[in-house]
Amino acid sequence: MTKYDFQKKVRFAILVATISAFSFCYAQSDSTQIVINADKTEGEMNPIWAWWGYDEPNYTYMKDGKKLLSEIASLSPVPVFVRAHSLLVTGEGTHALKWGSTNAYTEDENGNPIYDWTIVDKIFDTYIERGMKPIAQIGFMPKALSSKPEPYRHYWKPGAAYGDIYTGWAYPPKDYEKWAELVYQWVKHSVERYGKTEVESWYWELWNEPNIGYWQGTTEEYIKLYDYSADAVKRALPTAKVGGPETTGPGWDKAANFLRTFLDHVKSGKNYATGKTGSPLDFITFHAKGSPKVVNGMVQMNMGAQLNDISKGFEIVASYPEFKHLPIIIGESDPEGCAACSEADYPHNAYRNGTMYASYTAASFARKYKLAKHFDVNLLGAVTWGFEFENQPWFAGFRDMATNGVDKPVLNVFRMFGLMGGDLIEVNQDNLNYDFLKIRNKSVREVYSDVNALASKKEKSITVMVWNYHDNDDLTISDQLINLQINNIESKKVLMNHYRVDQNHSNSYTVWKSMGSPQNPTEKQIQQLEKSGQLQLLNSPEWREISNGKLDLKFDLPIQGISLIQLTWE
Asked: At the fourth CATH level, which superfamily is domain 32-43+421-568?
């Protein structure tokens, strides 16, 4: 053998070894072992997901609004809470994007109050009829009380400057006593209409994002408004729950400072309404948003930004011993900030129609539980600010749960959450590339995806949600082989249901595109879309034998896919 031949053989051997090594690494990265230990509980799985909200309150009682509310109510084993803007805005029930009205308060020619609860009642009746409960948002400013009433109504459309919406409804009252009386009369009326016990179960909160344009007053003026509002709520119903301040994400210094200033005042400031020290506070609210963008023609999410907002908010609340264990409601908790900004005008919102929104939701809610445990705070709810938009184009890319009455994939993740509950149980993952702190700090940007699980246990059931998520909207990323092991099952035989959301299951958007993306679908097509928008099984239900309390499952999970494994027994 010549020296040249020997070198060729060596180079070939090295090449083969290298290819084998890469193949091994690739195989390793394409499979994930997840072990669920059902005997190790991690606290109650509070239904923090069963909270929704939206800008346009008059959509509540419209055709598609009532349909979606019925579906949201039916997917949850507990009452769903609903938060809507503009419940006190002047107007005859007029509605538009980011606008709504109820005409609850006007004045006669002598400046005497006229209260009309017709539209507010219509909104709340729609909730109560479905077993839902209001987060009764006290706002915004009626025209007759606004310190700057003109211009009052905005006519914002997607693509216009966002600041155009901050008109007369966003200003402080010209008379705080009249404002307080309005709040008092509203709570008193609610007790008369729905009963004391029912209204005691609601949450009354003041305004929305007062640290930005939604409030055209100072921080102190908001605090003054809170004092008058909270006092009025408690005078009408001493056992009512009142809170705030509904600031934007505390990951932003201005929002964090506003939240601290508010909590300092509630703790030890002089109350503007009563002259006493401090103010009533039964729960604390702030918002948390991600920040997607388009990179190289693809949407790139930023879950880290949203988790950072949550983390900073929890950290601030935990720093106050007086408030650490008060309920926290993340009043808006979403991948970004503007539900009414469609994909056509804002290309980074292209994630909303398909499975990217769905898998983001699964992965982010799981981390909210982790962050609450990390800071030892009482997370009560995280409001998804995404409802529906009446009479808009099909799949226009709004942040909504349904389009023209057809459910989008993201709603099926909430149907999965509705099948969970009881106690959270331990999840172990063999090659944990992302934990909640890493995603908070760096988001999901590595070459590998976030493959993990959330698991819960009731008396005779175990449920495991598994996701394969990445911030980059690249559906060519390889499937993951999931090796799922569930230990300590308290039965020798279980009924297994395997639900799936992916490109081919529980996905009306894929079906709509296969139809040619019709903007005027036929009645038959609509029926097909409605059916495809429901939560679907991956396989038929099957009974499985359990050996030594253990069940092993293997299945492929595509990128941006979500599986829910439900085991039940008698």
From this structure: Glycosyl hydrolase domain; family 39 (2.60.40.1500)
